[in-house]
Amino acid sequence: MKSKLTVTAFLLISVALIFSCAQPSATQDEVANTENVNWSNKVIYEVNIRQFTAEGTFAAFEDHIPRLKELGVDILWLMPIFSTGEKYIKATSNKFVEEIKNPEERAKYLGSYYSSKDYLAVNADYGTIEEFKALVQKIHDSDMFVILDIAANHTAWDHVWFETHPEYYTKIKKGTIPWNPEWMKEHPEFFNMLKETGYTYPIEEGETDWWDTAELNYKNEDLRSEMKNVLKFWIEECNIDGYRCDMAGKVPTDFWEDAISGMRKIKPLLMLSEWETPEHLVKAFDMNYTWTMMHTMEDIVKGHKDASYIDSVLENQNPTYQKDDIRMYFTTNHDENAWAGTVFERYGDGAKTFSTLCFTLNGMPLLHSGQEVGLNKRLRFFEKDTINWNDSGFSNFYKVLTKLKHNNEALWCGENAGDFIKVTTSNDKEIYSFVRQTDSDKIFVILNLSNKAQNVEMNSEFISGEFEEAFSLEKLKVEKHLMLGLQPWEYKVFVK
């Protein structure tokens, strides 16, 4: 198993690194704010710097930190902040910017966050590295953490390594054209370049269209060494608290194990793998994605699966994970919002219901930029598209959920997780109910995962006692028999 830090160890090291370097005159009260740090009861929030404010800068984002702290966010995951490529950059999923003749139209497209031109330089549109350091410091001063998003599997076609270390890149047999012949016809210049050079873009089962990136070659030991230096740089130079690793499963696991082991010698970290692979959590990462659960929730809404399938997902995954592993649950993120649709397109009136599920299962819940105010538009991926921060009545809903997560040990995750007990109901195909509990704490959750009103009877063996519902504050006393009425997509979280 990966090395885990106790709360005490985390305190000693994190105080030494964060406060001695950034705040040498910290008071005892300031130091005390870190005493209860652990990952078990944290909420993570994805930040899109480009779209977050009209300015799209580090400095402008700073103004939102107090609001996010009040919301109950603990960890800020910043989408890639590195300088982005300018060669073969995309205007749409299948069109290069270079193909747009109108200069004004062409200037609108800013490239993909995940097509990095230089891993050691910040995107000038966001600010300077000194402004980024100031942002990290303000996040730490607010008793929050910051992790950076990095795509270590590929770079932009004009990354500095293309000139200095072309051997860092994957090549296939010259004359070979990867995959889709229609794309070849539409983009002859690009595919002729591939044919002549042998370089390739990341390919997955012939479907990936990441033409704006070139694939790195992890068979090259010098590349591995250089990438380790990159990962250490942002920890040592800017005092970040970890990484979200894009397409982590496309990079060899043994690289991650070695690299992360070295990084942990610098300071305690939170490492998130964008992959649903238990092996990543053995010696490398702390947390990974729950893609299967997200797609299951979508299938329930579509009527392709019923609520009981959630049990199948949990039962299939439980034997493959260890107690200290952390799973990240979510209804949306930048990819889903941009390409699959908003939470309202994908979940309809069940958007809050499935968020409640994500916050109460045994894992760490994720919120995406704007989700807390009811963002109801797909953010354009390659263009500037500022979030509208008018609250649609969602902030108070998420404040209740983050407070539940922080204050109720039954809802914690990883090595401190409360037990999960499935509660049988009279209609398990449309109702999902469970208990999370510790010796001193109990949470009872019941969710109507249908668009029909329900009257539900349930086994009260595990839910006897007196409860208060977290959102409505209604009282509930459960003895031998329990029947509840639920409106379509209604959710209830009872706290004992």
Question: Please, could you describe this protein's structure?
Answer:
With 496 residues, the protein is α/β, with parallel strands linked by helices. Among the domains are: 1-37; 419-495, Golgi alpha-mannosidase II (Immunoglobulin-like, Sandwich), CATH 2.60.40.1180. The chain is globular, with a radius of gyration of 24 Å. The strands form six sheets. Strands 1-2-7-10-11-12-13-14 form an eight-stranded parallel barrel. Helices cover 33% and strands 20% of the residues. Helix 12 links the parallel strand 10 (242-245) and strand 11.
What is the structure about, briefly put?
Helices cover 33% and strands 20% of the residues.
How much of the residues is beta strand, in percent? 15-25%
Count all strands and give the number.
Answer: 22
Could you tell me how far the N terminus lies from the C terminus, measured between alpha carbons in angstroms? 34 Å
CATH superfamily of the domain at 419-495: Golgi alpha-mannosidase II
